[in-house]
Design a protein that fits this description.
CATH superfamily of the largest domain: Response regulator
CATH architecture of the largest domain: 3-Layer(aba) Sandwich
Largest sheet: 5 strands, parallel
Order of helices and strands: HHHEHEHEHEHEH
CATH topology of the largest domain: Rossmann fold
Radius of gyration: 18 Å
Oligomer: single chain
Distance between the termini: 28 Å
Helix content: 40-55%
Number of domains: 2
Strand order of the largest sheet: 2-1-3-4-5
Length: 154
């Protein structure tokens, strides 16, 4: 009953009921509603403008919230972004994707977030395995491959 109310009236309306219900129940309900109502967030780190724009367009069209970086993001920025998935180009200015991936996987606040490496490097499967990436996409790729992999990991 409360779930239906939340979906019909929004999370804010449910929070107004705080005075009538147990606070812990409402807190849990709020978190569940966020999962139901809020789109999953994907961070894309890619320096090629055309590829980045295409990935962003496709994933937003699929209903995801997309945050983009055209350079290697700081781990702290990624933590603050709280993504459900990270798509990470291997060749970035300043820091390689596999280096950033290793940092992410060694960070207690991020290690559970799936990371997919994206690269034209012929050894991308090996590179992804070495840095503990959850998957990889070889460039050039088709849109079906991208969306299927994103759906699987998000």
């Amino acid at each position: 009953m409360i779930f239906i109310y939340a979906i019909e009236h929004g999370i804010e309306a449910v929070l107004l009921l705080k005075q009538k219900f147990n606070y812990q129940i409402l807190k849990e309900l709020y978190l569940v509603c966020q999962l139901i109502i809020m789109p999953k967030k994907i961070i894309i780190i890619e320096d090629d403008h055309d590829i980045l724009d295409m990935m962003q367009y496709i994933l937003e069209d699929e209903g995801y919230e997309v945050v983009v970086y055209r350079f290697a993001a700081l781990v702290e920025e990624i933590i603050q972004g709280r993504p459900h998935l990270i798509l990470l180009d291997e060749r970035l200015p300043g820091k390689s994707g596999h280096e950033l991936c290793a940092e992410i996987k060694n960070n207690p606040g991020l290690k559970g977030i799936p990371v997919i490496l994206v690269s034209a490097d012929s050894k991308i499967e090996q590179i992804a395995g070495n840095c503990k990436a959850d998957g990889y996409i070889a460039k050039p790729f088709d849109l079906t491959t991208l969306t299927e992999l994103v759906h699987r990991f998000s």
